[in-house]
Amino acid sequence: MGYVAIKGGGRAIAGAAAATEFLRTEEGLSDTPAEPLGIHAILHQLRYLVDRVVSEGGVYHPQFAALAIKQSLGDTLEAAFALRAWRSTRPRLSTTPPLDTSRMRLIRRISSAFKDIPGGQMLGPTPDYALRLLRMELMDESPAAFRAFARRWLESCPETQLPDSFPKVLDALRAEGLLPPVTSRTQAAFDITREPLVFPVPRSAQLATMARAETGSLLAIAYSNMRGYGDVHPTIAELRVGYLPVMLPHPITNELTEVGEVLITECEVVAMYEASDTGGKPMFTMGYGACFGHNEVKAISMAILDRALQKGMKDGPGNPSEDPEFVLLHVDGVDSMGFASHYKMPHYVTFQSDLDRLRTTQQKQGERA
Amino acid sequence: MNAVSRSNAYNFGFLDEYAKKEVRRAILKAIAIPGYQVPYASREMPMGRGFGTGGLQLTLSLIGPNDVLKVIDQGSDDSVNAVNLRRFIEMTCPGVSTTTKTAECTLIQSRHRIPERPLTSKQIIVLQVPYPDPLVVVEPSEDKRKTMHGEADYSRLLVKLYEDIVKFDEITISHRYPTRINDHYVIDPSPIPRWDVPKLHASAALILFGAGREKKIYAVPPHTKAEPLAFSDVPFRVEDFRDEQGRRRACARCGCTDSFLDEFVTDSGIKTYQCSDSDWCNEKMALARQTEGKPA
What we know:
The complex is a heterodimer. By secondary structure, chain A is α+β, with helices and mostly antiparallel strands.
């Protein structure tokens, strides 16, 4: 009698990988074989997907994010996972100082708090007001159509001189005394990639955890707060999307030098006012969200949860979205998808042990009856 | 893309050296405080959280070119996950030898089992852990659990065991049996069956536990006391492998009557039993063949 247990593991794994690769390449057999998906096509035509993977992968490498999307057949959880695993192999060489988001090269900024904001509202690329009707003409597009639209659009753009930076809406509120002044700018940020979360954790650890959280998980918990399991009632003071200059100290002169830029989304929400503990003036409170890439829903969810968590830290959590442990330990996509998948692995030994307990208990109850 | 970024050349042990050093520091702390869960910044590995990424980080941080590695899952060297992990380690640790023989290895990574053959002082076993904290069944908040561990306050866990006895006349915990280490910290010994729990006590080998997703490392150092929680009148019991007549079931393959058995239902609907530890089973078979081969 042969050994029954899960034999041929190596062959099975190789077979599963080949079957998946066949799904990816199957189209090559058709009469009009399509081009393999190019990294450039993914970077440009699936840019929100790339942004999401860059953000959840927690490493700004759009090219590798596109590669990860390609090899995972478009599964965002898998793609972010591959990017994170790649990051584990990279040593930490340098740390940037806190970057100033007022210096962002903006492609979009809006405020829902004021009709007009210093510098003006700038809608930029957004599907917010688009009618979600299927555009049947895209079923079959030609490179010529791409070129024609892109050229026409650029030519129709007025050559206005945009300023290099825009003032922040919150600064105006601070100047009016409606928001508390910034106090702890000098505190070093908690590095979640080098330190585990041991609760209670500082706000910077909370923000960092949410910045690379899985978008859907973050949205679900933030939504619970919006719907009634919480009372943030936020107003978006400012939402901006743009390219943030990354500054590093020059290796020789130590002078801060721009080494590149990253696309980020930043959201600042203002919530109802609170009386000051020290008997001072009541002020608005704020929540902050920021993440790599153009991910507005994620940045908004994060800002709401930041506000909710601050409340929970102060008064004790009144609902799940205000509980730092509940929120921060359940929003990571790599952790949660991995654990959900692991249930597919064999559990013969533990199940055998379960059977032993159940049979013994049943037997005892039988004896009792 | 340049040639460098396309290459697949990873550092020995996949992780960068700083990460490995950090894991080794956490291991030292875990050994110094038996049973204490040391938090560490667990790295993402290229396999799923829950597939042994914690154990893998320990293994990769400890392994050197002179080590002989054994990887098992459910007691078997050939299960898909064991094969997958072993392959990954072979790929990222060139020069390391691997074996399926418990007697020959210096380092074992395992999920859900401790081998039947007693381990020696020259060996380290790394167990993969899904839930590092035994208190999670009675307290969901990690912050509160930390205080309970510090005060060695396991009253709620004992109450749970007591309630089991009242309700079922039996402690119903089948695996992951809470075990007190060195008279203080109670650990979750990972999902090993109760059968393996006594092997933790006064083990000659160093036993390490790695929880990657939960970012904890803990240890049962060699020759350390390990006691499963129980009551003086309701002793701890391992899995019962006796049949209806009260006879100990034997492995259908090697005939062994003192190993943990897996239950199978054959195509014809008959229940049979086999050793869960494949190396143990093979060794017994080889021994039997040898004895048979000898002239009487």
